[in-house]
Amino acid sequence: MTDENLCDIMKIQENKVRNLFSEKIIKIERKERKQIMEKLFTVEDIANMTSLTTRTIRNYLKDGILKGKKIGGQWRFTEEDIKNFMDNGTYGEEWAETRRQDILDFIDGVNTFADNIGEIQTCSIIDLYQDDEIVKVKTDKLMEFINSHNETQGNWMSFSWTKIESESKHRVIIFARPQYLIEALKILQ
């Protein structure tokens, strides 16, 4: 093998390493860009999603039940932070009482959601007798659907869910305009 051939082989190897290194950097940059572009939610957003007060959300933060990051002096939460919070057992008891009151208010015509929903309002209670993994996939899809539609004014919908261990079921409660309820039910079926 001549020096010239050896030199060519080394250049080829060097280019392969450079290309591999460049691909890794591009993958890292994409991952960082995705993290930067990930939607962050505020305390108020979580309060609206859960129908809890902002004070209650802040108490959960203080007690370590809800995790988030402070950015510019204000709390921000990822979807993962919210999912972890909703999966937390402590949230369940307060969830049940708050949902019960929301439903009674809806039945009594004292609906705090009325300004957001419009002329036709729906409240649906859906019980899912399915495995946790299946329900998690469905509720994640439902959350994505709601988040993508709530950003447009007038496309309002709220949902919450919990697992009722004693009955081996997951309960989903949805307040929405009829067209969004229909889409939500398709996701949950």
CATH architecture of the largest domain: 2-Layer Sandwich
**How far is the first residue's CA from the last residue's CA?**
68 Å
Q: Give the CATH topology of the largest domain.
A: Ribosomal Protein S8, Chain: A, domain 1
User: Biggest β-sheet: count, sense, barrel?
Assistant: 3 strands, antiparallel
Give the neighbour order of strands across the main sheet: 3-5-4
Describe what this molecule looks like in 3D:
This protein has helices at 3-37, 43-50, 54-63, 79-87, 89-108, 114-117, 132-150, 178-188; strands at residues 69-71, 74-76, 122-128, 157-164, 169-176. By secondary structure, the chain is of the alpha+beta class. The protein has three domains: 1-37; 39-79; 88-188, Ribosomal Protein S8, Chain: A, domain 1, CATH 3.30.1370. The strands form two sheets. It has a three-stranded antiparallel beta sheet, with helices on both faces. Helix 2 (43-50) crosses helix 3 (54-63). The longest helix is centred in the N-terminal third of the chain and has 35 residues, at 3-37.
Briefly say what this structure is:
With 189 residues, this protein is of the alpha+beta class. Helix content is 61%, strand content 15%.
Topology at a glance:
Layout: H1 3-37, H2 43-50, H3 54-63, E1 69-71, E2 74-76, H4 79-87, H5 89-108, H6 114-117, E3 122-128, H7 132-150, E4 157-164, E5 169-176, H8 178-188
Antiparallel strand pairs: 1-2, 3-5, 4-5
Helix pairs in contact: 2-3
